[in-house]
# Entry
Amino acid sequence: MLEYQAAKDLLKNKIILVTGAGDGIGCAAAIEFAQHGATVILLGKTVKKLEKVYDEIIHAGYPTPAIVPLDLKGATEQNYIDMAETIAEQFGHLDGLLHNASQLGALGPFEHIDLTSLETIMKVNVTAQAIMTKALLPVMRKAPHASIIFTSSSVGRKGRAYWGPYAFSKFATEGMMQVLADECDETHVRVNSINPGATRTEMRAKAYPAEDPQTLKTAKEIMPTYLFLMGDESIGTNGQAFNAQS
Ligand SMILES: NC(=O)c1ccc[n+]([C@@H]2O[C@H](COP(=O)([O-])OP(=O)(O)OC[C@H]3O[C@@H](n4cnc5c(N)ncnc54)[C@H](OP(=O)(O)O)[C@@H]3O)[C@@H](O)[C@H]2O)c1
# Structure
């Protein structure tokens, strides 16, 4: 998918929510979507980071984004219901949802798994995405066509020693994608997952501290798959697991 070339106005007039939009891949996706004409809703934990992305989008002359400060760890179902209502009021519908925010947690042997950390990772990486999607589906069904992207990982497709709760959460993410895609088959909502592959971000540096980041693709470089799945050229693509770097 690295070779996919998106038309300049691919996402014109689309409303797209990106979680974890303040940093790394989510930040790159939000800017890329805006550059291709979308109004992006920037959801994330650290307001300062979201404001920086907001300013960058405004400065570039792209459509004015919106900011939703929300920590997925503490968010309640009511938070998502309220957010869905606000989106319905302000925009009428939602065309795209990129579930990108995740926590890595500590890597290590199975016997060292910490219950609190396991519960936090499952809450942020799985439960939050399920309940947010549930709340947003009605407003997504109001779009002519809508796209939901879940973010996976290589360790969510094949288990690997010492990747613990993060890997479990990514397997659950793939499962959630498949269940929802099957339910949405033959509807105007399509659901797919992307494994970004090794990408130059804070999370990758935390997982591989000894690695030279310059050897990795940047978040911007892996954007073609994200654009393809958000744009109308992927209408009819449903339930597929993509790799952004192949
Ligand atoms: N980078 C890679 O090589 C790689 C490889 C495979 C999969 N992935 C996946 O790609 C996605 C993006 O990863 P990344 O490398 O860009 O990670 P990152 O640089 O750590 O960015 C993660 C983003 O998620 C947000 N986030 C984390 N916890 C949150 C919470 N509780 N509530 C709301 N937002 C939260 C962060 O916000 P704050 O900055 O405010 O904390 C940040 O904006 C993740 O799903 C990751 O698992 C990445």
